[in-house]
Task: inverse folding
C-alpha cells in the first residue's frame, strides 16, 4: 500500500506548509478540494504518491478522513483513535 499521502506531505521539514495543509483540510467546495489535492500532488513531485490513498480520500472526504490526515501529517498516527474507539457508544436508556 505504501506511505499515506498526508504522512508524505508532513515530516521535518514538511513538503506542504502547515497553512496550506490547513486550507486543504478546510476546503469548502469540491473545486477547492480538487485544487488543493492537485497542488499537493505537485508538491510531492508527481511521483511516489499513494494513488489509492489520494483517490479514496477524494471520494470520501469525511470528518473521519480529515482527522486521519491531520494525525498522519503531524506524525501522530499512533495516537489516532482506532475505529472501535471512535465509534459512538449506544445509549443505555
Result:
Amino acid at each position: 500500500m505504501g506511505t499515506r499521502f498526508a504522512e508524505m506531505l508532513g515530516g521535518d521539514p514538511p513538503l506542504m506548509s502547515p497553512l496550506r495543509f490547513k486550507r486543504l483540510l478546510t476546503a469548502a467546495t469540491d473545486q477547492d478540494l480538487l485544487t488543493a489535492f492537485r497542488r499537493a500532488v505537485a508538491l510531492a513531485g508527481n511521483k511516489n504518491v499513494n494513488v489509492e490513498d489520494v483517490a479514496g480520500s477524494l471520494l470520501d472526504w469525511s470528518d473521519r478522513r480529515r482527522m486521519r490526515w491531520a494525525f498522519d501529517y503531524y506524525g501522530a498516527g499512533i495516537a489516532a483513535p482506532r475505529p472501535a474507539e471512535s465509534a459512538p457508544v449506544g445509549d443505555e436508556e
User: Anything to note?
Assistant: The helical segments are 5-9, 18-25, 30-43, 51-59, 63-73, 83-86. Residues 89-93 have pLDDT under 50 and may be disordered. The first helix runs from residue 5 to 9.
